[in-house]
Design brief:
The complex is a heterodimer. Chain A is mostly helical. Chain A is 84% helix and 0% strand. The N and C termini of chain A lie far apart (54 Å). In chain B, helix 6 packs parallel to helix 7. The radius of gyration of chain B is 18 Å and the shape is globular. The N and C termini of chain B lie far apart (45 Å). Chain B contains nine helices and twelve strands. By secondary structure, chain B is of the alpha/beta class. The chains are: A mainly alpha, B alpha/beta. The interface between A and B is medium-sized, with 22 and 32 residues.
Chain lengths: 262, 247
């Protein structure tokens, strides 16, 4: 038994080979589950080409509608992200290994998992039922959706804080609130603001999907045009969305880099 | 409040023992006894894992005491007396234990937190506190760097900011954990000279050190730990033979 263990420890090539075989088997198993029909893929190419050709040229007559819907999407994302970020902070504090007692951590983590496991579209349907069609439903859905992710990101930022710096404040007699204000907050702020900016950018895309269930934003117009076979108008919507998402991505990346450098 | 019978004793440890650690198959500190008088400069020496840092941490209530007792300036250490004891002591952590995103002066001001209510510090510190913090930085040769973020300071400068943070508490006793780890010769000399000056000003200093020559130069007494127990308590000179026999 000892010889076998010794051989296993020394035979790195065998370990790598077995890991490689394991990975191939895993991907093969997943592909089998997908039941991909290669013949169908080969014959479907003309249909895809036909669909894409009907998207062009874009119909710019709906540009004003697209811009208006997009402004609403950005507004939804801004408020949804902000409300979600505010609600995420206490949940993150209660989930953090270095701050909360074990039983509170478990409950807070359970709450996070619960929120994260509900798809945004389901949240959209839920709030449309509660507040009716339109942007308020989408904003509330985005707020809850944001908690699932930002609470986790904030929690990890809190857990990565240098423990010695907090102990130093504790030894100087600082209260829990003072440790949070002067020890934790300055250390997590740059990282957390970066995560929040990323979430804002992500929520613009998520808000577009929420429009599909009538929760406001550009997605609502987009789906209406596709359902009405007005593909060139749908293309205008997508192009406007592309421009704005790219611009916000560039701005947010720039701000994140500046925050990380601090 | 029960006071110790020795009015000159800054720190008294009697049969100090921390909890049993399965990985070591022993307590980290095992029946540690010593008395440090007010105004002494004591070097704590020992190999890695000997329990030096744990000993310092147990003196400020960061490591629970399983058995035995500790008295600081005549006051027995307990959860009830801990806030008062922490006001008498300052501690310098290995690497400084500073908040990297705060400026040097704000880090120094953090040493005042124990004296002010959470409500009071919610909006910051008074101008008087700020002036005092700047004076301390000036004394330590860091006036020009007061508004710099501590993450941008060198190791030696960070240690001096940490010293200023401890000094704003006006401590009677300063516990120092490896103050010169990773510092170059010049920074080492600056930090050790600062500690020596503080000792001359009357502050009792207990410093965890690794270099025997530094201990012999600056400390008046050495306590050597091995596997959680005191194996030498006395002169800081000619300890090298003692370490060779351990290795």
């Amino acid at each position: 038994m000892k010889d076998l263990k010794h051989f296993w420890q020394r035979a790195a090539w065998l370990r790598h080979l077995l890991i490689g075989v394991g990975v191939v088997l895993l991907y093969g198993w997943a592909l089998r589950g997908l039941q991909v029909d290669l013949e169908l893929l080969k014959t479907s190419a003309p249909y895809v080409a036909d669909f894409v050709s009907r998207l062009f040229p874009p119909d710019w007559s709906v540009l004003d509608v697209a811009v208006k819907a997009l402004v609403e999407t950005v507004q939804m994302s801004l408020w949804g992200t902000t409300i979600g970020a505010i609600l995420s902070m206490p949940i993150a504090v209660l989930s953090a290994r270095n701050l909360a007692p074990r039983w509170i951590q478990l409950l807070a983590n359970l709450l996070q998992n619960l929120v994260r496991s509900v798809p945004s579209i389901v949240l959209g349907l839920l709030f449309v039922a509660a507040t009716g069609l339109g942007a308020p439903a989408g904003t509330l859905a985005l707020s809850i959706y944001t908690i699932g992710y930002l609470a986790k990101f904030y929690q990890e930022a809190i857990e990565s804080v240098d423990g010695r710096s907090l102990e130093a404040l504790e030894v100087s007699g600082a209260s829990w609130l003072q440790v949070a204000q002067y020890g934790i907050l300055p250390q997590i702020l740059p990282l957390s603001l970066g995560y929040t900016l990323y979430m804002f950018e992500y929520n613009i895309r998520a808000a577009s999907v929420l429009g599909v269930v009538g929760a406001g934003g550009i997605g609502f117009e987009l789906v209406s045009y596709i359902r009405g076979f007005e593909y060139p108008k749908a293309t205008t919507m997508m192009l406007v969305l592309l421009v704005v998402v790219t611009a916000i991505d560039a701005l947010s990346s720039h701000l994140r880099r500046r925050l990380e450098a601090k | 409040m029960q006071e110790s019978s020795n009015p000159l004793a800054a720190i008294v440890c009697q049969n100090l023992q921390t909890a049993y650690l399965a990985a070591l198959q022993r307590p980290i500190l095992n029946r540690v006894n010593f008395t440090i008088q007010t105004g002494e400069f004591v070097a704590l020496l020992g190999l890695n894992g000997a329990g030096k840092s744990t000993l310092l941490r147990s003196l400020v209530g960061l490591v629970p005491i399983y058995q035995g007792s500790v008295a600081i300036a005549g006051m027995p250490l307990s959860s009830r007396t801990l806030p008062q004891i922490r006001q008498k002591m300052g501690m310098l952590f290995q690497g400084g234990g500073l908040i990297p995103q705060l400026s040097a002066v704000d880090n120094v001001l953090c040493g005042r937190l124990g004296y002010l209510s959470s409500w009071r510090t919610l909006t910051g510190f008074s101008n008087r506190d700020r002036r005092h913090a700047l004076e301390l930085l000036d004394t330590l040769g860091l006036r020009e760097l007061a508004s710099q973020k501590t993450s941008r300071l060198s190791g030696g400068q960070q240690q001096r900011v940490a010293i200023a943070r401890a000094l704003i508490q006006s401590p009677k006793i300063l516990l120092v954990d490896e103050p010169i780890a990773g510092l170059d010769v010049l920074a080492t000399q600056q930090v050790m000279e600062t500690l020596a000056q503080l000792n001359r000003d009357g502050i009792t200093i207990v410093a965890v050190l690794h270099e025997l020559a530094i201990a012999a130069n600056y400390a008046g007494r050495a306590i050597v730990l091995n596997q959680g127990t005191v194996i030498h308590d006395g002169s800081p000179h000619q300890l090298s033979g003692h370490f060779q026999t351990q290795a």
